[in-house]
Design goal:
With about 210 residues, the protein is mostly helical. It is built from six helices and no strands. The protein has one domain. Helix 1 packs antiparallel against helix 2, helix 3 packs parallel to helix 5 and helix 4 runs antiparallel to helix 5. It is a multi-pass membrane protein. It is found in: Membrane. Keywords: Membrane, Transmembrane, Transmembrane helix. InterPro entries: Cation_efflux_TM, Cation_efflux_TMD_sf.
Length: about 210
């Protein structure tokens, strides 16, 4: 197919760049909101989701830089993202495990409300990026992160509702552990595709459509 020829790899539609800039701003704003609320409320789920937004913002920024670069540099950028997600996953895992033994019961209503705000932000990002969900590992990482964010937000909302209904703190760290698992899953998928593309010596361009 012409859209997958190596010489077209560097051509990214201007609309894709604009979409990346928009979701970058959205993610930085939501990182600030969730980090502050998570810190003051003691919610591990919100803190984990805040790190998710920060990781995504870094992913979008790195993707913007990598557009127009050679396959070698795009593959390197994808690997940086993959390893960064693994590090974030370990940070969330450690914070969640500490909370299992020394945590407090966070306000369930606040968790769900902020989770709903985060869900709105991520669904907006998802709609902006859905046209560009297929491509090389660098582009694919953007879609994977945003898609998984929606799943994480739904889990955060559920955790808040369970805390509110039961008065138990356990749903909050358990959801944080689930978010850590999402970090790891995305990191492995990105690194695997980056390694495959490095061996093959080529990658599909933005706009190639394929299976998820």
């Amino acid at each position: 197919m012409a859209c997958c020829e190596p010489e077209l790899d560097r051509q990214a539609p201007p609309a894709y760049r604009r979409a990346l800039i928009a979701v970058l701003v959205i993610n930085l704003l939501m990182f600030g909101v969730e980090a502050l609320v998570g810190l003051f409320s003691g919610s591990r789920a919100l803190r984990a989701d805040a790190l998710d937004f920060l990781g995504d913002a870094a992913t979008y920024g790195l993707t913007l830089w990598a557009l127009g670069q050679s396959l070698v540099w795009r593959t390197r950028a994808a690997r940086i993202k993959g390893y960064s997600l693994l590090v974030l996953g370990l940070l969330v895992l450690g914070d969640s495990l500490v909370s299992l033994f020394h945590g407090v019961t966070p306000p369930g209503g606040m968790i769900s409300a902020i989770g709903a705000l985060a869900l709105t932000a991520n669904v907006t990002s998802l709609l902006l990026l859905v046209r560009y969900r297929d491509g090389d590992a660098n582009i694919r990482s953007v879609w994977l992160c945003t898609r998984n964010d929606v799943i994480a937000n739904l889990a955060v909302i559920g955790a808040g509702l369970l805390v509110l209904a039961t008065g138990s703190r356990w749903p909050d760290p358990l959801v944080a552990l689930g978010i850590a698992a999402l970090f790891t899953h995305s990191a492995v998928a990105i690194l695997r595709q980056a390694n495959d593309e490095a061996r093959a010596g080529r990658a599909p361009s933005v706009g190639c459509r394929g299976g998820d």
